[in-house]
UniProtKB/TrEMBL annotation:
Residue ranges occupied by any Trichome birefringence-like C-terminal domain in the UniProt entry: 107-378
GO cellular component, one term: membrane
Organism: Buddleja alternifolia
Domain of life: Eukaryota
Every Trichome birefringence-like N-terminal domain range: 53-106
Location within or outside the cell: Membrane
Entry keyword set: Membrane, Signal, Signal-anchor, Transmembrane, Transmembrane helix
Family: Belongs to the PC-esterase family. TBL subfamily.
Name recorded for this polypeptide: Trichome birefringence-like N-terminal domain-containing protein
Amino acid sequence: MATSKHLFPLLLFVVSFCLSFIESSRYDQEELQWLDEKDDEIIMIQSRHSSLKSCDLSKGKWVIDQTYPLYNSTNCPYLSTSVTCQKNGRPDSDYEKWKWKPHACSIPRFDALDFLGRMRRKRIMLVGDSIMRNQWESLVCLVQSVVPTARKTVIYNGPTMAFLALDYEMSIEFCWAPLLVELRRGADSKRILHLDLIEENAKYWRGVDVLVFDSAHWWTHSDKWSSWDFVMEGNNVYKNINPTVAYEKGLMTWAKWIDLNLDPRRTRVIFRSMSPRHNRDNGWKCYNQKEPLEYFSRPHVPEQLVVLQKVLKRMEYPVYIQDITTMSAFRRDGHPSIYTRASGEKNNNQQLKDRNSDCSHWCLPGVPDTWNEVLNAML
């Protein structure tokens, strides 16, 4: 039995986490649901660089590995129903067994105990949209099985959630901030995007040891599915603004906050590249796909990456890019498609036609596990 001497630091750790979540902003619960994104093409990028000087982890190929997946979805209680594709009736499972193999090196297999040991007394926070939450759930599932039930918990508060491994005094956290800058409700419930305001989101990023950001999808929605109704910068209000211009302005606000508020000796900052979507044919391009693509006929670099690179070059703070886009663009087979909710009856053709096909998020176990193996290698 633990003595009071050992219990005190653990109690202090949990209390400090609770206090850090007291000041939370109010977020609409509907915005925490998976997105129904409508983009129309496979998005790819060319690698800018890798934080591992000796090897570019973004260039490689997918190979079958029968020792995968790294965990069983039935044994991880932290998964959203939307991504538990096997539970939701997906008939194939080979999508769980593909391993990413870089051309010039290899990615270490994820070892939960090693990861926890290296991250002892640290906070890791993933910041972004529902696809970043997809990655957070993956990372928690990779780690949680080696932590006794009584020694782990999850704290939910406002736009944040945190998995705590009490014996290691460490946390894996998620912060909902799909645009990084602030999106507020105005008169008549209109959504106003403030390009020069960020503190309501950024206050949760203080004191974190590893910050992983992602912000692209909500900036690329078409007019019909726009993420905002109006845009404000200072006292100026815009109804129509070029999304790429808005994205650069929003990233500049983020970059300024990072430069002014964080210490590179304390906090590692990583920006994860855009997760690809296979949404051609109204979201049905990924349906019934059982193998990765073998090659690309029309690779291109999205504007968001060009903007991100330009902004990062102006920063004083060292920010690392985690390139997951090209490797993931091969994986048209890895999305939930129609298997986003449990069904008690066998699907017929008409039922399939009536259901939406999610080609944006990822089944778990699956592709985001590889993202986290790459993240682990970077750390």
